[in-house]
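PROTOCOL LOG
Step 1. Enter all chains and additional molecules of the complex.
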Amino acid sequence: MRRVVVTGLGMVTPLGCGVEPTWRRLLAGESGVKAVTHFDVSDLACKVAANVPRGDGSDGTYNPDQWMEPKEQRKVDEFIVFAMAAASQALDDAGWHPSTYEDQINTGVLIGSGIGGIEGIAEASITLKERGPRRISPFFIPGRLINLAGGYVSIAHGLKGPNHAVVTACSTGAHAIGDAGRLIALGDADVMVAGGTESPINRLALAGFAACKALCTAFNDEPARASRPYDRDRDGFVMGEGAGVVVLEELEHAKARGARIYAELVGYGLSGDAYHITAPSADGDGAYRCMSAALKRAGISADEVDYINAHGTSTMADEIELKAVERVLGNAAGKTAMSSTKSSIGHLLGAAGAVEAIFSVLSIRDQIAPATLNLENPSVDTPIDLVPLKAQPRKIDTVLSNSFGFGGTNASLVFRRYAA
Amino acid sequence: MSDIAERVKKIVAEHLGVEAEKVTDGASFIDDLGADSLDTVELVMAFEEAFNCEIPDDAAETILTVGDAIKFLEKNAA
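Step 2. Run joint prediction.
Step 3. Record the structure below.
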């Protein structure tokens, strides 16, 4: 199988628009979680969320007009604009702008989303009820479909290779990157633009996740303390929004054009729980098999993993993942660090796995593990260093990134420092 | 320019994201103003909304230029 490396990164997160502003603020221990003020939350149990900071584009703010023409933005839900922003950044970062037919057909797109255009669907259903079918826009369908994130990206950049999308709830971003890596490894493409995007912060999605009893409701007055994975006072996840996109490239292709190589994607594992629609199986069996499969594919043993970017959503499921990780690591648990960056940016659902894959790659570049914020009183003892409160410089060559989704769908990625 | 013509041109410029001076009577939505077939469907909906009238599909198919729209609406708008 051909080797696959990461050569470009792009993101829009609650900490900012762009990889470097987000990473800098993440390492500084900043939180992107705030009180929701742009719509009425008075009757919602959860009143906090992690919104992308809007602005004129300076100082790491997100200005959608920089990424998509206003007349096009009007036609789509914001998850598509987020994807356009992250994909443009990643392609610029990789210095890859295919212009020949040959390069275009060898560059594909695989961007997913967990729930896609839920806000636009909610609005259109009101229009349908109140004003009838003749008032439904011709852009209603193409502006909500999940694969249209990748569709718009491919059109904007002339990418004519495989065009695919993943929908696996909170595992979406990791599955997209893993599957895209396989397409390159198997020779279907030389370059893939891959990741996840999500724009779920609206009344309907907050009401829906609150009904599942999945959201944090105990910290409405202290938003920055709301997302607290592994802490005894955690009581649910905090919804976030944004996108993460990477450029994956076949190793020889990257070397031939002198591309900067961030890391190699060496492992990818998948599994299903076959247990419950929203809860992970209590024995952590699905997570265990998923991580084990990724390590097997990478051809490495568990004691080679230096850092794990956990799924860690700040729910009761944190301990199930932790037990599964302990089981995978065995005697190596005491020398491994694991943190949940959701403590800072909330849970970006379908974008989470992609954004966290980027954090994993950056932890290798900068030899530092980002912190688990708000981890003041761990709910269980563990030999694993959960990197409480403060980012931790450490030797990091190999990283495992976990994502687990509703429906019992699991994905793990393994990145390794590139060595010829 | 009639009030209707002015309003039509404003709607066209906004929806298609083109400069006002390009929106002449003779301008074709698709050939001159960069619209695709979905844009034209939405434009017709915007006209219906703004002028509180119904534009049947067979009539919509004959509205290809800014001038066509103005003519139709001057005749049929409430």
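Step 4. Note key features.
Chain B touches chain A through ten residues (CB under 8 Å).
The longest helix of chain B spans residues 37-51.
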